[in-house]
Amino acid sequence: xxxxxxxxxxxxxxxxxxxxxxxxxxxxxxxxxxxxxxxxxxxxxxxxxxxxxxxxxxxxxxxxxxxxxxxxxxxxxxxxxxxxxxxxxxxxxxxxxxxxxxxxxxxxxxxxxxxxxxxxxxxxxxxxxxxxxxxxxxxxxxxxxxxxxxxxxxxxxxxxxxxxxxxxxxxxxxxxxxxxxxxxxxxxxxxxxxxxxxxxxxxxxxxxxxxxxxxxxxxxxxxxxxxxxxxxxxxxxxxxxxxxxxxxxxxxx
Amino acid sequence: xxxxxxxxxxxxxxxxxxxxxxxxxxxxxxxxxxxxxxxxxxxxxxxxxxxxxxxxxxxxxxxxxxxxxxxxxxxxxxxxxxxxxxxxxxxxxxxxxxxxxxxxxxxxxxxxxxxxxxxxxxxxxxxxxxxxxxxxxxxxxxxxxxxxxxxxxxxxxxxxxxxxxxxxxxxxxxxxxxxxxxxxxxxxxxxxxxxxxxxxxxxxxxxxxxxxxxxxxxxxxxxxxxxxxxxxxxxxxxxxxxxxxxxxxxxxx
DNA sequence: TACAATGTGTGTGGTAGCGCACATACCGAA
DNA sequence: TTCGGTATGTGCGCTACCACACACATTGTA
Lengths: 253, 253
Known about the structure:
Two copies of one chain form a homodimer. Chain A is α+β, with helices and mostly antiparallel strands. Chain A contains ten helices and ten strands.
């Protein structure tokens, strides 16, 4: 069995035309993504970007007093390090691995080359993914303002679930609390309710979702908005509003 | 006196090299931007983008139950309608004029043409501006989670002030409450405190900032983070991390 | 000058989430 | 088997904010 998953498990890499895949492949390095590792710190100059295959990375802001809040989450549908092609080279937020697995690493300059390549496929994919990321951030802001911990917990678990292979996730309540920017006790209480309802089952850092439809009902609208917009922006045939008219090849592999 | 301000009052247009300015000028139409007007609704397909010269536009999300929250704010430093070049063509949020004035309108296709032009200036400017916008959204999320209404009001007024010519803004407390996603009474109370401290003075929809340094002290860190990052991303000479090495001409006029 | 519309001040009770202090349960290592 | 670290449960007082209700003041208009 292979030590690393195929790079084409990442949706962006998979959606590239064969020629672009061939250009990138020699520069893609598989890297382990252990839980808790900080990929980059706020203000760091980004040397590499990462394409997750089966891990989840959280982008979170850490305040001066140590309190934190998750801005958005990245899994196999996206990439970590958009500041590399956006031009800033760094961001005020931290990228931390929230669920272990592996990813493919690409030097920043290679990404910029491909971004500016005559074949605009990579550019289109990156920009559309960035818009999905923006939607997620915007919805996080709304959710933080208006929704209860119970609703937010549901949203958060669902977003994670969409990026994982099965219905189980390994996360302590403490960690979840850091992501949501709330007290651990608040998560304990919310999770207790969900368990009592038979929607989830958890046990020392391991959560199993038993009734996903119920979960979606209990979540706020934010999850659905983000999911719908992400799907729209990553549908294989982009709408005519897209920059160049040249269609993408359907993925090779 | 001219009926419309010069397009070069907009920082993005001003930062373009002369050749790019000449390409765009014939397609830039001055448009009035009256307070309260909705530039585009959530889900609308964007026909035009707007470059404010002296108005402020709020991007805000309106929930199913009618509650709202501001995602970010755009003034003469930026543009409205990034979804046009990001590829989505629409967003789940609304763009509404928060402070009246005027702007220059550009057809979406013209923007895409310039975005993909061999001269990458426009592309660089747009991408860097987008990153600044992302920073603002992320910080809004953090602020909504952790800070009090008093702090957020300071942040919000400062962000608006940076986009206006003087130290006065015309906004009712009701409007501000909608932007911050809180009750009007909450804003009344916070504004009352600021007035008592002699930091601001207001009178039926007109706020005058008397002591800006105090305002900055009373604000949360979020304002400073956004300001610093925005300045960094829009400094005239981008750092080497930027996509193409070709330098921008320093702005004409 | 009357009047309605608009903008602001204030009070009362209710609740979600906080900070803190512990208690308890589980699990792996010595 | 004991023990110490880790994960979770629970209670208590506190505060910021909410929802609602209503008073009052300013402004433009008839």
